């Protein structure tokens, strides 16, 4: 069984994925996708992390800044390809959960796939990020908007679909209403109904 979890920043999607994996005995892949891609490609972890779920544009140059625009754009494409290859490879191994990185799209043709999107009200997400990262309200709001913009652009570029659009998911949860434990219970109930 493969579960993919897309998430708005600050919606506790990562925490839900980890708790669900622990409860089901699945392996959870989040930043581990980047590490696996580094192990199986010619890219360092630093390069892969600097391009991880970032906006794709020949005019936006993430680190390292010494690269020209065309080289940076090409590197962004190669990094994404390495991550997608890692996702496919990891999905072949065992029951698992993937967090973000277009996994719902990359694995869309697999059987036994549940695609989940975690969202939450902006106020909830702001409060979550203020607590988790010790940010002011304004800092949390800016961070959420920036990360969501990056994820949305990344998703749109590589899938030609809209990030968070209901047609791309089997289940969409509002974690502000369910909390982490409630979200885990709902996803497990949905899994039972699928079988």
What is this entry, summarized?
The chain has one domain: P-loop containing nucleotide triphosphate hydrolases (Rossmann fold, 3-Layer(aba) Sandwich), CATH 3.40.50. It contains 8 helices and 5 strands.
Write the layout of secondary structure elements.
Blueprint: E1 2-7, H1 13-24, E2 27-29, H2 31-39, H3 45-50, H4 69-91, E3 96-99, H5 103-106, E4 113-119, H6 122-133, H7 137-159, E5 171-174, H8 175-194
Parallel strand pairs: 1-3, 1-4, 2-3, 4-5
Helix pairs in contact: 1-8, 2-4, 6-7
Word description of this protein:
The protein has 195 residues and is of the alpha/beta class. It has one domain: P-loop containing nucleotide triphosphate hydrolases (Rossmann fold, 3-Layer(aba) Sandwich). It has eight helices and five strands, in the order βαβαααβαβααβα. A five-stranded parallel beta sheet has the order 2-3-1-4-5, with helices on both faces. α1 packs parallel to α8 and α2 packs across α4.
**Tell me about the biggest sheet?**
5 strands, parallel
| Largest sheet, spatial ordering of strands | 2-3-1-4-5
Number of helices in the DSSP assignment: 8
CATH hierarchy: architecture: 3-Layer(aba) Sandwich
The total strand number stands at: 5
Range of strand content:
5-15%
Tell me the helix content. Answer: 55-70%
In angstroms, what is the radius of gyration?
17 Å
CATH hierarchy class name: Alpha Beta
Sheet/helix structural class: alpha/beta
User: In whole angstroms, how far apart are the ends?
Assistant: 11 Å
CATH fold assignment: Rossmann fold
Number of domains: 1
The coarse silhouette is: globular
> What's the name of the CATH homologous superfamily?
P-loop containing nucleotide triphosphate hydrolases
Secondary-structure element order, as H and E?
EHEHHHEHEHHEH
Uncertain segments are: 58-69
Mean pLDDT: 89
